[in-house]
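<amino_acid_chain>
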Amino acid sequence: MNRAQLQAKLSTLHANAERYDRSAKPAALPFDEQLFFTRSEKLLPYVKELNDNFQQLGHSANSERNDYFAERFVNQLQALERFLASREHTQPSSPTQSLLELRESLAQHREWERKLCELVRNKENLASQNQQHLESANEVVIAQQRLNRCRNAIYQLEETIAQQEGFVRGQQKYQ
């Protein structure tokens, strides 16, 4: 993905965050403390932090620093996209949301689950090799928390699909 495509993705994310902030009641957002420095009840400040990190990409002569900003940016972007996707499915389903869309979202969440399982295994391996570092243990816990949130979203999607399938089947029975 090139810079222009990422910028377009950020613009879309900004618009979705604005829409979320207008419609949602203020509440603490479930982002890892190590993932975002921002603490807010609104989503837009998190998108601003993401955009700030995007602006930092490639502006350092230090390749390790560039790698840090790139990894942080990707993790933050995925977290915000997952959060918005899961909120779309926890709110009452709109009649326009088709079973196909729900199944596609479920497939995406299962892919994220697979990647998060792999991340947890990698973090556990690193932590077991490096037992003196508390930071490694914290990274394992954070990865497991992300995996749990992903699994909760999968469960909610499966429930929504089951409800809609039951409703559709019930409608067909009486027609």
In short: Residues 92-96 have pLDDT under 50 and may be disordered. The helical segments are 3-23, 44-56, 63-90, 99-129, 134-174. DSSP finds five helices and no strands in the chain.
